[in-house]
């Protein structure tokens, strides 16, 4: 599936146009690649089933296509650096998943 139907949008939105998302109660703030930000009436959990979108924190999802690198500290917590320079926190719950998604990718262990 390459598109998402969002409430309030007449046409579907391309998944690759989404950079990352942040949850705000039952709303989700969507940050697009072009810099636009939209707020939709869907909880963050709704978007976890779409390919390429990876949950990194209780309140954040990133598009794996736009992950520049992953940094972490001995399995405690980490950070995802996106291609636009945005840094999104990774909780220890989701850190093992991210490390497995980028086995040969841009991972660095911070001290």
Automatic annotation (TrEMBL):
Query: What range does the record give for the signal peptide?
Result: none
Q: Which InterPro entries does the UniProt record give?
A: LytTR_DNA-bd_dom (IPR007492)
**Per its UniProt record, what Pfam families does this chain match?**
LytTR (PF04397)
Q: Which UniProt keywords apply?
A: DNA-binding
Q: Which domain of life is it from?
A: Bacteria
| Xref: PROSITE patterns | HTH_LYTTR
Is the keyword DNA-binding assigned to this protein? yes
Taxonomic classification: Bacteria, Pseudomonadati, Bacteroidota, Cytophagia, Cytophagales
Output the Gene Ontology terms for molecular function: DNA binding
Limits of the HTH LytTR-type domain: 12-104
Can you say what this protein is called?
Answer: LytTr DNA-binding domain-containing protein
